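We give the chain.
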Amino acid sequence: AFNIVFDALFIFGWGAIPALGLAGAATACVTSRVISTLLVLDALKRRNMIDLPAILDFKTEGNASFKTIFSIGIPAAGIYLIAPLCTAANTYTVAQLGQTAIAAFGAGTRIDILFLAPATALSLSLSPFIGQNLGKNLPERAANGVMWSNIISLSYGIISAIFCFLFHEYISVT
């Protein structure tokens, strides 16, 4: 809800706030997320579900879980940055070759997404599944989920490869 209001405000401007266009959309997004985060933290603090000073003091014994979470979460967040950074680098490189190359790269990317999206969705859903099962001390169920995920992804990959091989003339024309 905040983002909708701030989008209109910062993109088109109002009163003393100038119209910022695309930069306004980015400003609206960041502003709404900061406000939402502050409101959630305030609600948690009022319900005694979080002790902000204790969280910010990483020397206390009660924050061992936060240290563990951050030691796993920060590298995991870095992993999720790899794909967008590579895409940006690839796009920049292709942009040096002209508009035709950009159009071909865009078309190829759309075809790539069509065939990779199911496997990507499966892999993204696998992490919480594994975490929940290991948290419930069900390692066999987690391992079984990984096995089936691999089987499904491999099967889908093989079917997609066969489809692309058989219909490559039609795919490359579109």
